[in-house]
């Protein structure tokens, strides 16, 4: 009884009239009082200047003016100081290591960890992300610099007729390429942000970004193997370059420099062990152990043990002290790096915004996607003038910034000060740092990206289409390189969306007895089709790519083949026409015979005979007409009267009526058949309801398809109704001139249930209607 009482509490009762679109407009009082401003009014409003408006514009474009004056030293200062120092210490080794990925000298990695961070402090909206060098962006830059400035372009004749590479000239040109690409990527980001195009990143789905970054991590890994083994593989470009590089590295393994391999393995072991300790005791340690900085002190061992001279270990080399004056990028290079710049702009922003939104959601604040685009663009553009390469947020540094107590971008400001001090005063101390140590730092920081391989089993269980996107992105990135791989993966991701909308799930709906619910009859056992009514629904919007399929599946699911029915109807009409013409000819012949017979009669009997002939003629025509109606009625009734609607008593009564009342009953059947013409389809269906509640917009092809459905099905005497149409779609249909005398608005109903009740009421199915419109239970 307790369960029954709980169920009673969950019941609800609704009593209202059946609503079509016209009646809904009256009842709900549809109006236009929520008028949108016109384009002219919006332009006028945007150009209007006032104090509050100016303040709002300034705060939205320069966010630091909003939060810095309200900065709480008591709550935030200590946390920001600790996290700023921790991130600054990470910037030093990562900046130098990632510069090698970009095929630049390590000092340019330090510059990149300085200027862009200061710019983001002013214009950024995320409080926790750490802007600076990042492996994926660095390898993208490196692929461009090595393609446009290969070693082969800078070979000069050395002593004894040997050929050597002019490293200074090569590195200077590579810096120009990197700066030009960075400035152009920044301009793209600023332009997209100004026109409020931040949503463009939504086209890069999470599986795509994760698959791409995992593929990029493989490129990073392979590019650093040469430093680990101390070998110099050939430079490959274009598709499959990663495979060729790996093959070449394997061939060069016998030439491995053992001292560099030992340095690499020792550094790698220390880094992995201490990083795991940091992860395990994250809650207990006040600060993570700055192992990367400790490992970098290997420069002391290298310097005092003379490893460079003894074992020819490859080291960082000269790191000039002080800052360089800003320099305009080489604009002549823009045309050569246009595509790469756009790819860097999009990928950098995608990584940045996904990380920013993750932290914002965790800490309860909002990140402005358009402003982030502008902030990142300005960081790149300004940085490009100061010989920096493209930046984005780093996951490892951002996690350290957040976990060590960072609350605002003041932590970023402090980290950039640490980098500035290093560049100005102590940069030269890192000149003897082995490149193998920097490459191990890169390797260890790739751990998070390689963990993304665990997405594969997870996506296999949850969504196989997303898994396919991940795998195609990863494979194309590995095989086709970073730029072409990104283009292919975006194209494939778009195709999956198109195919999903182009191949939706179509279903015939049935009513759950005693409710107003209409569910897929193939999925729900209790959902029963209403006799004579087909309710058809598509799982997605009907538009030009799937409109034709919508019509085909409608015919297939409803069992009504329009083409055959129209052909059969035309044949029937032609047959009827021929029969009528024969009857007319026969009548004319009879008339001529009668006239001849009259001419041979005496004058006195003419008028009498004429009157009798006329009477007989009228009588014959009347009988013929009755017989024709009777035949037509009987013909129409075959396969037309859906006795599923009629109780057995009705059938017997109609049969007895036919037997007793003769001609009157035939007239009644004929009249009844005219009302239910739809039953001529042979399937017993007289009405079709199209549930278009899932349709969010209509294009010209959709409108044309719906018109054709109304016209063609109407020609075979089937009534078509629309249900569940959204208000915006109704407006689009009105604009497209969909409604007319043949398709009135009264054919459009608020819900499927309203349409069903209207049809049953129209057909006089009172008994069935009472069962349908009973109190709805939840």
TrEMBL record:
Stretches the record annotates as Disordered: 571-634, 650-684
Membrane topology summary: Multi-pass membrane protein
GO cellular component: membrane
GO molecular function: secondary active sulfate transmembrane transporter activity
Main localization (coarse): membrane
SUPFAM superfamilies: SpoIIaa-like
Compositional bias of kind Basic and acidic residues: 580-593, 609-620
Pfam family, one: Sulfate_transp
Ion transport in keyword set: no
Localization (cell): Membrane
InterPro entries recorded: S04_transporter_CS, SLC26A/SulP_dom, SLC26A/SulP_fam, STAS_dom, STAS_dom_sf
STAS domain mapped to chain residues: 523-759
Keyword line: Membrane, Transmembrane, Transmembrane helix
Transmembrane stretches, start-end: 98-123, 177-199, 261-281, 293-313, 333-355, 467-499
NCBIfam families per record: sulP
Name of the protein in its database record: STAS domain-containing protein
Taxonomic classification: Eukaryota, Metazoa, Chordata, Craniata, Vertebrata
């Amino acid at each position: 009884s307790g369960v029954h009482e709980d169920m009673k509490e969950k019941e609800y009762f609704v009593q209202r009239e059946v609503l079509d679109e016209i009646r809904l407009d009256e009842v709900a009082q549809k109006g236009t009082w929520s008028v949108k401003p016109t384009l002219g009014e919006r332009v006028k409003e945007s150009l209007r200047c006032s104090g509050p408006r100016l303040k709002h514009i300034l705060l939205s474009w320069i966010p630091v003016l909003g939060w810095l004056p309200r900065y709480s030293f008591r709550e935030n200062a200590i946390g920001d100081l600790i996290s700023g120092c921790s991130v600054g210490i990470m910037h030093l080794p990562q900046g130098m290591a990632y510069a090698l990925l970009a095929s630049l000298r390590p000092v340019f990695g330090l510059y990149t960890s300085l200027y862009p961070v200061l710019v983001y402090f002013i214009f950024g909206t995320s409080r926790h992300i750490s802007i600076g060098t990042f492996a994926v962006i660095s390898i993208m830059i490196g692929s461009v610099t090595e393609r446009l400035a290969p070693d082969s372009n800078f070979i000069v004749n050395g002593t004894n007729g040997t050929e050597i590479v002019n490293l200074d000239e090569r590195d200077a040109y590579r810096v120009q390429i990197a700066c030009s690409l960075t400035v152009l990527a920044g301009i793209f980001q600023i332009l997209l942000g100004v026109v409020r195009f931040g949503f463009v990143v939504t086209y890069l789905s999470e599986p795509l970004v994760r698959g791409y970054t995992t593929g990029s991590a493989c490129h990073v890994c392979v590019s650093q193997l040469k430093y680990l083994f101390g070998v110099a593989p050939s430079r490959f470009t274009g598709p499959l370059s990663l495979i060729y590089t790996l093959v070449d590295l394997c061939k060069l393994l016998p030439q491995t420099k053992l001292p560099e391999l030992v340095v690499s393995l020792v550094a790698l072991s220390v880094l992995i062990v201490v990083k795991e300790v940091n992860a395990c005791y994250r809650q207990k340690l006040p600060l993570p152990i700055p192992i990367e900085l400790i490992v970098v002190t290997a420069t002391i061992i290298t310097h005092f043990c003379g490893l460079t001279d003894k074992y020819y270990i490859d080291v960082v080399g000269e790191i000039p002290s002080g800052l360089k004056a800003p320099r305009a990028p080489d604009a002549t290079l823009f045309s050569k790096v246009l595509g790469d710049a756009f790819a860097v702009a999009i990928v950098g922003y995608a990584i940045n915004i996904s990380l920013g939104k993750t932290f914002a959601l965790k800490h309860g604040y909002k990140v402005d996607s358009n402003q982030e685009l502008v902030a990142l663009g300005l960081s790149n553009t300004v940085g490009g003038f100061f010989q920096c390469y493209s930046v984005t947020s780093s996951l490892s540094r951002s996690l350290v910034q957040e976990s060590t107590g960072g609350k605002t971008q003041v932590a970023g400001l402090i980290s950039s000060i640490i980098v500035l001090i290093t560049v100005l005063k102590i940069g030269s101390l890192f000149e003897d740092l082995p490149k193998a140590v920097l490459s191990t730092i890169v390797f260890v920081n790739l751990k998070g990206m390689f963990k993304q391989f665990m997405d594969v089993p997870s996506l296999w269980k949850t969504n196989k289409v997303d898994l396919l996107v991940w795998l195609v992105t990863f494979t194309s990135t590995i095989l086709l390189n970073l730029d072409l791989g990104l283009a292919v993966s975006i194209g494939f991701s778009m195709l999956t969306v198109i195919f999903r909308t182009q191949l939706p799930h179509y279903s015939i709906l049935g009513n759950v007895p005693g409710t107003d619910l209409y569910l897929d009859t193939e999925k729900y056992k209790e959902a029963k089709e209403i006799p004579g009514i087909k309710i058809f629904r598509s799982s997605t919007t009907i538009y030009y790519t799937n409109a034709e399929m919508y019509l085909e599946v409608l015919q297939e699911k409803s069992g009504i083949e329009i083409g055959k029915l129209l052909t059969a109807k035309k044949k029937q009409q032609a047959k009827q026409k021929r029969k009528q013409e024969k009857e007319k000819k026969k009548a004319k012949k009879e008339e001529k015979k009668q006239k001849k017979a009259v001419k041979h009669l005496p004058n006195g009997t003419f008028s009498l005979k004429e009157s009798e002939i006329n009477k007989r003629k009228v009588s014959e025509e009347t009988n013929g007409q009755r017989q024709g109606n009777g035949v037509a009625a009987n013909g129409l009734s075959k396969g037309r009267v859906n006795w599923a609607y009629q109780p057995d008593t009705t059938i017997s009564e109609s049969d007895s009526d036919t037997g007793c009342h003769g001609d009157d009953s035939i007239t009644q059947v004929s009249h009844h058949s005219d009302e239910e013409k739809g039953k001529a389809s042979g399937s017993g269906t007289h009405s079709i309801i199209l549930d278009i509640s899932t349709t969010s917009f209509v294009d010209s092809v959709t409108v044309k398809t719906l018109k054709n459905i109304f016209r063609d099905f109407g020609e075979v005497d089937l009534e078509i109704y629309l249900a569940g149409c959204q208000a915006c779609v109704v407006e689009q249909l009105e604009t497209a001139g969909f409604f007319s005398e043949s398709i009135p608005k009264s054919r459009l109903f608020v819900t499927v249930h309203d349409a069903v009740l209207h049809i049953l009421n129209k057909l006089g199915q009172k008994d069935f209607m009472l069962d349908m419109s009973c109190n709805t239970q939840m």
